[in-house]
From TrEMBL:
Name of the protein: MerR family transcriptional regulator
InterPro entries: DNA-bd_dom_put_sf (IPR009061), MerR-type_HTH_dom (IPR000551), MerR_fam (IPR047057)
Annotated ranges, domain HTH merR-type: 1-68
Pfam families: MerR_1
PANTHER family cross-referenced by the UniProt entry: HTH MERR-TYPE DOMAIN-CONTAINING PROTEIN, REDOX-CYCLING DRUG-SENSING TRANSCRIPTIONAL ACTIVATOR SOXR
SUPFAM superfamilies found in the cross-reference section: Putative DNA-binding domain
Amino acid sequence: MRIGELSALTGIPRRMLRYYDEAGLLIPDRSANGYREYDAQSVDRALQIRGLIEAGLPTRVIKQVLPCLKQSRDILVAGATPETLALLEGERDAMTERIERLTRSRDAISRYIGTVRRMRLHEVSVAS
DNA sequence: TTTCTTACA
DNA sequence: TGTAAGCA
């Protein structure tokens, strides 16, 4: 299938699909006219890549981990080299930090919302 | 019509 | 990421 169809199937913008190609994450075949030609497997592959990117993994890391995901959507143990493992540990820690920052932000926002609501309630009761 | 590359906001 | 240009 061509890029337009893969885009429709995955919901991933064609722009991003070309970016995955440039980044070496998902390299399609090329038809005679130069159009990118994707196989059915590319659907899962593209979805996996998007998931990893949304999780905040740098493309360089994804590029290294991707071979481990080649088959199914589960991780292939055989493809895990010590270097890859070390890289992933670093990413995991960075992810944990991000989660903690997000948690603090969320809690701060929750407190703010609670405060504003209490103020509104008082205004209403005083007015009526 | 759809896709391609390159470049800029 | 979006968009525009100029092709094939």
